[in-house]
Every structure is written in structure tokens, then in C-alpha cells.
Amino acid sequence: MGSEKHIKLSELNRKISDALSDCFKGQTFWVVADITNHSYKADKRIHYFELVEKGSTSNSIVAKIIGKAWGTGSMHLSDFEKNTGQSFTNNINVLVLVSVDYHPLFGLSLSVLDIDTNFTLGILEQQRNATLKRLVQENVFISKEGEQYSTTNNQLRLPAVIQKVAVLSGINSAGHEDFRHTLEHNDFGYVFQIDDYPTIVQGDNNAKLFLGKLIEIYTTGIQYDAVVITRGGGAQSDFLIFDNYNIGRAVAKFPIPVITGIGHQKNVSITDLMAHTQTKTPTKAAEFIIAHNRGFEQKILLLQKNIVIKSQQLFLVNYQSLSSLKSTISNSARELITGHKDALNTINQNTINSSKTILYQQHKMLLSLSHQVSAKPKIILYNRINDIDNTIRNLKTFTSGYLRNQKGYLGHYAASIRMMSPENILKKGYAIVKINDQIISNANTITVGDNIDVILSDIIFKTTVKQKTKYNGRDTDL
User: Fold this and answer.
1) How many domains does the chain have?
2) pLDDT of residue 476
């Protein structure tokens, strides 16, 4: 090994460089590859990355080489980002014009000289078209009619007047401020309830956050008239979230009309196609709502104007009819008055004459009645005095007889009472028995040995009961 001829590594690298330069000098190649490990040195305006090719049936890498872009190549990449809206970053598939470079220190690499914008736009468009096709195929509430898409949302009817608005927008978004300012300072003095639901409105990886806010609007239970999605301007890649399948599906099915005011001027997003109404910017969305309400107001004003005109026409037609009717009524009234005037005069005269006769007759009747009334009280009083005198005499006679009868009754009662008095009964041989100064009427209360008082008409015996036998009552049996 030591005796064999050898060269330095730098010399070998130089030979490789010379060989590659001779082979690839002045040649460029259009290459399709994916970008990985991308970084950008802003101060030097240099992009560093790797170009890789993946297998057709798997994601395994079958080829890889270091790439870079500076100078004109870096400028073309900036133009690519502006034209496509797609950042030059990892995991994008590109068609680039490259030259082969070899550096003894850094090794083999490819310098990007240009990039095909249409190729990337075509891929994005293919992805967009595939998403739209999937939305139609997998959801019965989405259909395509010609170049238009029919969804549950865009078939909803906007309320006649939009007042309650839920706004889905970026946090501290200038586009949202434009939207709110335009609504709140409209020329017609319309007042709106604007509820903000801030979220992140860029980057496809933020689709779940966006969907969460959309669900939050629904679950509040607030009867919003419309949901407005706003976003200001930006790179086209910032709007890729609005081409997301799940967001497009949710907007298409959402039960409240969705108005988009996404600030991209070149393309229409899938969200725009699924929504009820698509406008270009947040300000345009606000102007659409104002114009919608203004249209309703103009319809009301036009209806008011038509009502006034119709009322005037009806009034004029009916005024003429009323004037004609008034003339007819006036003429008929005059004829009726004239026709009945003589009859009324006759009736009036007859009434006057009849009234005089009646009054005279009634006057005579009143005079006669007056005389009768004046004389009759005297007769009535005289008759009543006689009646009273007779009544007094009858009362005196009746009272005397009644008193005699009652006196006889009282004498009879007094004699009966004297006969039944204890004094007379005692004189007839009866006695009163007492025990302890109490008159005894029931022999059951007296027992042998009791001290008793026996009272006769003129004497009292005090004795003691020695024997008690049953009495047959024959001595008093009359």
C-alpha cells in the first residue's frame, strides 16, 4: 500500500469537479421533486433545501440531493410565492429548472435557476377539484348543477332584514375591523348586533379550530340572521384553509346563511362555493348586508308609495260616487219634504184643534173633580168620627162583660186553691211527715229507727219508727 501512488482528497475532489463540469457544463434540467429540510437565510436571500423523489407506491425516498437557490433563482422563488400564494417550503411538489454543481468542500448539489408556477398551480387546482368532487360524492346535501354548487346553506332564505350577525374572523384582524366599521357607520342608520368569534383563519392545520368556532355559533342557540366569515388580504397559501374538505362540508350543511368576505381577488375558495353568498372582501360583505336591508326598506317605501297612490285613486273614484249620491239624496229629500209638507201642515192644524178640545174637556173634568175632592173629605171625616164613637161604645160594653167573666173564673180558682191548701187537708185527718225538717212523700226514704215529725192540723208528734209494713190503701179508697 505504501509503495503505491496516492493523491490528496482535494485533488480527487478537483478531478471530480472537472469531470462534472466537463459533463454538465452549460446544461440545465427541468426536474420534478418534493421539497424537504427547507431553510431561508433572509440576510443573504438564499434558500437551502433537499430535493427528494418518493416511490410511486409508497412514501419511501428513492432519490435525494441537496439544493439551493440564490440570486436570480431566489427572485424566481419569490415570484412563485406571489403568483401561487403558496410558500416555497417543505412538502410541496415542484417543477424546477436546475444546474448541476460540485464544490470540493460542500459536495454535489443542484442550483435552482427557475420554477414553473403553472405546475404548482395545477397541483393545487387538482387538489381543489378532488376536494370538490369528494364533497359532491360523499354528501347528499351538496350537488353540482352546471358550474354551480347547490348546498343546504345556499338554498336558505335570508331574513328580510339582517340584524344579528355572528362573525368568524382572525384575532385582531384588520379585515374584521373594516367589516365592523362599515356596518356600524352605514349611511342609513341601521343598527346591528355583531357577535365576534375570533379564530385562526389561515393554515390548513388550523381547520379544527375554525370548525370548533362554527360549532360554537350553532350551540349558543342565538337566532342569528347570518354568519359572516371574514379575512383580510394575504398570500394565496394563507387561504388554503378555506379549501379544506371538513370546513367546506360544515359550511354547506350549516343551518344559518353563511356570507363570506375572504380577501382574495384571484380565486374562489371551496368555502365560497358552499356558502350562501360570496363577496370578495370583508368590506364588500358588510356592504352586501347593508344593501340587503336597504332593498327591504326600499320595498317597504315603494309599497307605502303604492298604497298612497291607490288610496288617492280610490278616494277620487269614491269621491265622485259620493258627490253623485249626495246630489241624489238632496234632490230626493227635497221632493219628500215638499210632498209631505202639506200633510204635515194638516196634521199640525188638526193636532192644534184636537189639543184645544181635549184641554177644554179635561179642564172641565178637573174642575168637577176639584169640587168633589173639596166636599168629599168632610163626609169621610164625619163618617170616620161616627165609626170611632161606635167602636169606643162597643169596647166599653165588651170590656165590662169580659171583666165580669174573668172575675168569676178567678173566684172559682181561688176556692179550688183554698180547698187544696194543706190546712184544709190536715183538718180532714191527713198528716204531714217530716224527717230533718224535710217533707217526705216517698216512704222508701224512711227506715226503722228514724226520728220523724208527724204534723196534724193542731199538733206535732215527734216519734221514732219501730216497724215498717206495706199498706194496702183501702182507707183512702172512696
Assistant:
1) 3
2) 59
164 vs 193: CA distance, rounded Å = 5
Same domain membership, residue 132 and residue 21: no
66/152 same-domain check:
no
CA 426 to chain centre: 109
Give the DSSP letter string of 6-56. Answer: ---HHHHHHHHHHHHHHHHTT--EEEEEEEEEEEEETTTTEEEEEEEEE-S
Judgement on whether residues 33 and 108 belong to the same structural domain of the protein:
yes
Strands 93-103 and 107-115: antiparallel
What are the distances in angstroms from CA 49 to CA 45, 62, 65, 89? 13, 17, 9, 9
As a whole number, mean pLDDT of residues 438-449 equals: 82
- How far is Cα 69 from Cα 81, in angstroms, rounded to an integer? 14
Taking 60 as the threshold, does the pLDDT of residue 74 lie above it?
Answer: yes
Average pLDDT over residues 147-171: 92
- What is the pLDDT averaged over residues 156-168? 95
Q: 257 lies in a domain?
A: yes
User: Residue 237: its pLDDT value, please?
Assistant: 54
Query: Are 140 and 247 in a shared domain?
Result: yes
Mean pLDDT for 197-209 is 78
Where in the sequence is the domain holding 68, given as residue range(s)? 9-115
Q: Looking at the domain assignment, is residue 450 inside a domain?
A: yes
Average pLDDT score over residue span 264-275 = 80
pLDDT given at position 93: 81
Of 213, 265, 271, residue with least CA distance to 241? 271
Distance of CA 46 to the CA centre of its chain: 62
Same domain, yes or no: 140 and 282: yes
Chosen domain end from 249, 266, 295: 295
What is the separation of C-alpha 207 from the centre of its chain, rounded to a whole number of angstroms?
33
pLDDT-above-90 percentage for the chain: 29
Torsion of CA 119, 123, 126, 128, to 10 degrees: -120
Cα–Cα distance, 439 to 460 (Å, whole number): 13
CA-based torsion, 246, 250, 252, 253: positive or negative: positive
Q: Give the three-class secondary structure for 102.
A: strand
Q: Are residues 90 and 146 both part of a single domain?
A: no
Task: Tell whether the torsion through CA atoms of 313, 316, 318 and 321 is positive or negative.
Answer: negative
For the ranges 24-33, 90-99, 194-203, 290-299, the one whose mean pLDDT is highest: 290-299
Tell which residue, 462, 385, 401, 391, has the closest CA to residue 431: 462
Distance of CA 62 to the CA centre of its chain: 64
Q: Which residues, in sequence order, are CB contacts of 158 under 8 Å at separation 6+? A: 225, 226, 257, 276, 277, 292
Q: Running DSSP on this structure, what letter comes out for residue 160?
A: S
* Residues ≥6 apart with Cβ < 8 Å to 149: 132, 136, 142, 143, 252, 273, 274
* Per-position b or e across 161-183, b if 16+ CB within 10 A of its CB: ebeebbbbbbeebebbebbbebb
